[in-house]
Write a structure and sequence with these properties.
Strands 6-4-3-7-8 form a 5-stranded antiparallel sheet. The chain has a 3-stranded antiparallel sheet with strand order 1-2-5, with no helix packed on it. The chain has one helix at residues 129-139, and strands spanning 9-10, 35-37, 45-52, 60-68, 74-75, 85-87, 108-117, 140-150. It is built from 1 helix and 8 strands, in the order βββββββαβ. It is mostly beta strands.
Amino acid sequence: MPATREIQVTSTAFADGAPIPAAYSCTGGNVPPPLAWTVPAGATRLALIVDDPDAVGGLFTHWVVTDISPTVTVNPEGHTPDGGVVTANSADRIGYLGPCPPPGTGVHHYRFTVHALSRPLALSPDTPVATATSAIEAASLGSGRLTGTYSR
């Protein structure tokens, strides 16, 4: 039986499909939640994308981290995965932007997706979000996702 390339993504802060605590949003500390993931065989690097498909103007990417070592399987609260390169998000900022939907726009779904990559991407921090996410998709061997909700 071949090894699976699916990744399990979890958090001690919220369960899949559950609300994300305010501490990880723009109304709280605006820091990344604690995350953990499995790594499939064959991954030479990992990437993490946090996005909101329910954003008013269409898909909004809150955080992109590439070239994470496959030996890294946890990310503590408030940190960037060790060795990872943070590239620009949809706000053209380099860093994590927590959930922050406009008031009255309903429940938004925030997807924390980890990709197993076939090769290092060697992107620079000023890489535009569309370029970074395209490069991740092109090198992805498999992925896994944790989805949390947030509204205000």
